[in-house]
């Protein structure tokens, strides 16, 4: 047997040694960094946002002082970027509130940077509201005032922040509501609860007692009795659909009014002009007072439009068409159309000979059937597909944006929560993400190009409601995916790009924003609603 040459083996060993050497060299800076980097507990890491030598701003500011970190030490700067309190703390989680800020987990400082309270046995201190902050000491939860005195002793297993001068606390596995003096407003009989900000506008929040759900107000009163199998949620709507303990359905109002049915129905979607689509074998419609408008029938389908008009079709009869009615149940028109959509802006899409067009509310063809796909009208335009490509048409059938795109998807339509309120984003000028030849861009409902169709990546990151300059969408995009993505801010109502020079934009409060200059990822800036910079970090990461 012929011996194999030794050099392949030697080459392999040499290659591995080289890789190990390179890895060791690359690890040296990280090891040195780790040696200097403070050790953070798990709770700290959940609050930490930044890397070495970066200057990063929190998403909240009050009294014009913002916590920033420089070379592993935290301090506070003003909107001009000047240090009012020099970097000196291991951790500064939040901005000032009610005259104090929490630093190093268990210290309180005033706006001069002076420590006015510290207690090493305290594991953490939360955000102050109504002069009180949740604090954990010796594994138990209580509430401190701004002087560091426990107004409510740490005796609870868990707790929430105060809102509307009340908070939820847990003892022996169950919850109760207390006021700012620690007085119990309920007994410890709540097995589960949801005390999120989402419910604050409605004034009631879900609670579970004896295995069933109801709704409680901030006085500790059960507005909706705990007799439902499902959690009742009043966020953007004053109505919810509940399943009672007897397995019968009910319409539930946030003021406590319950409209019960003697059968089980499932809801489909949300109410439209006071009508609700329901299902039991087949589909039907009730109004929000509980009156049956269309009785559910086996294999029956209904279409409910935003204006309250509706259509009914018996799916057992394949030759039957849709019959449309006004909200008051009077006949609008009968049709032979077997495929239809809801009315929007007085037009409904219909399918004729495998093509889609639009009819008026008396059933007449207004836009001839010529499209492979037709969608609802929004703000005077609708997305259609013709010859395999997407575009926009107007309510007269006129072309607003030529059908040339491979993909066209609504970009923004979302409910958000800001400043303890629920804001429905009223999109006066809907935006669409379009795709053409593997590149993405954004167009508005009037056919204007908002962002050029040239990006390899484009995704909606989030939508925020900033009260000083309308709702904003943050869009992640990348010209070259391998270089990573950056972000742009777009005004939802106008469709115009704002803050185009910055990515990672965050609202600080008081009309001020933070962001990263595009192309300079290690710098951070503060700017106002007009995009004018008042501070740039100048630190390289």
Rg, rounded, reads 30 Å
Distance between the termini: 60 Å
Major β-sheet annotation: 4 strands, antiparallel
How many helices? The count is: 2
- The total of beta strands comes to 50
What structural category characterises the helix and strand content? Answer: mainly beta
Strand content: over 45%
* Strand order within the widest beta sheet: 7-8-9-10
The portion of residues assigned to helices is under 10%
Average pLDDT: 82
Unreliable stretches: 1-59, 416-422
Q: What overall geometry do the principal axes of the alpha carbons give? A: flat
Pfam family, one: WG_beta_rep
Protein name: WG repeat-containing protein
InterPro entries: WG_beta_rep (IPR032774)
Can you walk through the features of this model?
This protein has 541 residues and is mainly beta. Helix content is 7%, strand content 48%. The protein contains two helices and 50 strands. The strands form 14 sheets. The chain has a four-stranded antiparallel sheet, with no helix packed on it. The protein has a four-stranded antiparallel sheet with strand order 14-15-16-17, with no helix packed on it. A four-stranded antiparallel sheet has the order 21-22-23-24, with no helix packed on it. The model is unreliable at 1-59 and 416-422 (pLDDT under 50).
